[in-house]
Each structure stands twice: as C-alpha cells, then as structure tokens.
Inverse folding.
C-alpha cells in the first residue's frame, strides 16, 4: 500500500475540528493538544486505497474532508464522511482489517496510531470511555446493517429463484418430433440464471427455425437479455424469418441493452423440408456440425460474421448461406460451454472430443444422439466443477440413409 502524501500535523491545526467529533468532544483542551501532536495527516486522491482487507490494523483514521468507502470483495458496504472514524477496532486489538477502505473523493484523514492511543489510556480514563462509546455505537450499527442485509439477501434469493423458473419456462419442449424431422435440445445454466438459450419455431408444416445463442457471462443481466432476445425472435418471425432478418433484429435489441458491454454469439438455422436445404447465419458462434452418416462426412458450418455487439450497428452486414441437407443427416448446435468443459486436470473437451462423440452417437435418433453426446461430455468432466452454461441442440432429417 502506498499513500501519496503523509506528513505530521502541526499542533495548532486541528484542535477545533477534533472538538466537533464524537470521540473527542468532551476532552479538555490540554488532552486535545496532546492528541493533536500525535496525529499524522494523510492525503488520498479519488480511487486510492487507504488499506486493504487483511492489512495490519495499527491505527484509527479520522476523516477531515472527503468521503471514504468501506468495501468487501469489491462490494460497497458503507461510506464514511467528515468527522467519522475508520478502523476504530484497531485501537483495542491487533486483528487484521476486515474491509478495504477506498477514497470516493479526494480525502484528508488524521491518523492516530494504536501505540499513541495506548499511552493516552494510562493518562486519562476519558479517552477509554470515549473509545468504548464509539465502538458500542458502531457495533449496534453493524448489527442493524447485518439484519437488513440478511433480509435483502433473502429477497434477492427469491427473485433469482423466480427468474430461473421464468427462464426455464421460456425454453421450448425438449423434443420436436415430426414425420420427417427430429429435434432434441438441452440447456443447463452454470448459475441461478444463465446466458445461454435455444429455441425452435415452426413456420408451417415444412419449415422450422432453430436458434442457439450465448450472451456474455451469466447472472441477472445476461438472463434479462436472454428474455429480450427470445421475445425479439418471436416478434421478428411474424414479419420475416430469414436468418439475416433475425440477426438484424437481435442486433437492434442488443444496441438498446441497458448493459452496454453485453456481447452475444448466435447461430440461426432455417430448415426447409420441401427443398431439403439449410439456410443459416452465424454471428461469432461456435460452428455447428453437419454429419452425413452414409458418407462419414463431418462438415463445419463456420462463423460468417462477428459476434453481436462487437461492431457498430451501421458497420455490420450479415451473410446467409444455403447448403443441402440429406435424409439421415445430423445437425449439432452448441455453446462454448460444451467444447470448453474441462476435466479435473484442466483438459478441455474441445472440438476433437465433440467430433468424436458426434461420430460415435450419430446412427440413432436425435434424442439418443443428444443424450449420448452429453454422456460422453459428463464422462470427460469426471465431476469437475463447471463455470459456464451448457446448451446442445441436435436435429435429424428423416430416417437414416441405408
């Protein structure tokens, strides 16, 4: 820890200020003069750290000007201002700091070291009484704050649980079974609310859209944008449902996001069962696989465009490609949580593991292939904790070719 400026305080500088504080207001002037000679003035610029959590607690600081924020794990707990104290418990014990203290504004503090305070205790009991009054009030304040925090955490937990239920309810049925098409999906968030989603939308008896998306991170904001994206897609398809139009609509929604730093990868595929073709656009998403069991050919539907939110709206145009899809072909879409799943040693499942599992599982139904790939993935992970959402969608056209 480095402070910009520390200098001794002249004995006449802060007597009047000390008399206005809770700790020193009842002390005689002779005692205040003695304390004043023991103080050091500390100057912090905005954003500078006075001390970190875990630092040695060897002094109390009195805020003369400015605002100081007490934080734990980057979370703001409370702000202290002129006339208030920081690090009071350091005067009576030698425990490490329980929070960090960061200057919210340019701040001037008076530092009173524990060694100087302990000498004062032997001279005047009023100092001890003042300190214990201060600590008792602070302890009461902390208990009240803890009660409020527990109540807020419970409300937040309930809100997150409801958000998870709502998000799970927005996913489609796990299976879509038609005479000439099977689709099976799976989505499992890494935390209470995830940033992955998938959907399939029937535009008629012979045309189906499949979308898989991954919003950066997971948690409240990512989950909120997932809901916005799903609503956007279902609104857009009433007007036009080509892959390019869907991508444009999602880009517009992302540009209006309250969390401007959100990014999103997305792949959207339209299955035309009349012509047996796939039309797709891919914005930075892990490339889907198209496997033909009859020939053993495994193709990658590579990304065509940058991920959504990575470039300005006016600068991004979307591409669309069309490829044939033969009876028996297997289409596999997924998010990077699948390919980046790690085992206990840190080794990723990666593209090779996924390709091998597709070849291994491709000669059965879409449901079987989905479950088989997930089983291989689970075996690879071996119970290692995961840090990302998992989403997998498998589609098969008609029967397996002879």
């Amino acid at each position: 820890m480095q402070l910009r400026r520390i200098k001794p305080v002249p004995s006449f500088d802060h007597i009047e200020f000390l008399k206005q504080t809770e700790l020193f207001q009842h002390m005689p002037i002779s005692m205040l003069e003695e304390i004043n000679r023991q103080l050091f003035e500390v100057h912090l610029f905005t954003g500078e750290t006075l001390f970190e959590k875990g630092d040695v607690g060897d002094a109390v600081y009195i805020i003369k000007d400015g605002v100081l924020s007490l934080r734990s794990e980057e979370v703001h707990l409370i702000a202290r201002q002129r006339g208030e104290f920081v690090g009071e418990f350091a005067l009576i014990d030698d425990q490490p700091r329980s929070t960090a203290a960061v200057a919210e504004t340019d701040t001037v503090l008076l530092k009173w070291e524990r060694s100087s305070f302990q000498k004062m205790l032997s001279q005047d009991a009023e100092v001890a009484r003042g300190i214990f009054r201060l600590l008792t009030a602070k302890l009461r304040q902390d208990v009240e704050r803890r009660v409020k925090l527990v109540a807020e955490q419970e409300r937040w937990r309930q809100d997150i649980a409801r958000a998870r239920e709502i998000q799970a309810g927005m996913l489609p049925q796990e299976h879509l079974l038609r005479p000439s098409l099977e689709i099976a999906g799976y989505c499992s968030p890494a935390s209470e609310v995830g940033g992955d989603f998938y959907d399939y939308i029937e535009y008629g008896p012979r045309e189906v859209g499949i979308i898989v998306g991954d919003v950066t991170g997971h948690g409240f904001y990512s989950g909120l944008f997932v809901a916005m994206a799903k609503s956007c897609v279902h609104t857009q398809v009433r007007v036009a449902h080509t892959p390019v139009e869907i991508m444009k609509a999602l880009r517009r929604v992302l540009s209006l996001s309250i969390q401007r730093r959100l990014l999103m990868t997305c792949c959207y595929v339209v299955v035309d069962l009349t012509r047996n073709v796939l039309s797709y656009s891919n914005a930075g998403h892990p490339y889907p696989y198209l496997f033909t069991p009859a020939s053993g050919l495994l193709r990658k539907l590579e990304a065509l465009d940058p991920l959504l939110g990575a470039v300005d709206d006016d600068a991004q145009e979307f591409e669309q490609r069309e490829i044939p899809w033969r009876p028996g072909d297997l289409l596999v879409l997924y998010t990077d949580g699948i390919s980046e799943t790690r085992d206990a040693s840190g080794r990723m499942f990666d593209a090779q593991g996924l390709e091998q599992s597709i070849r291994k599982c491709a000669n059965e139904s879409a449901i079987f292939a989905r479950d088989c790939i997930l089983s291989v993935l689970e075996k690879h992970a071996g119970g290692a904790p995961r840090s990302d959402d998992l989403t997998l969608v498998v589609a098969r056209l008609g029967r397996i070719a002879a």
Observations:
- The chain is about 35% helix and 30% strand.
- Residues 325 and 352 are 23 Å apart (CA to CA).
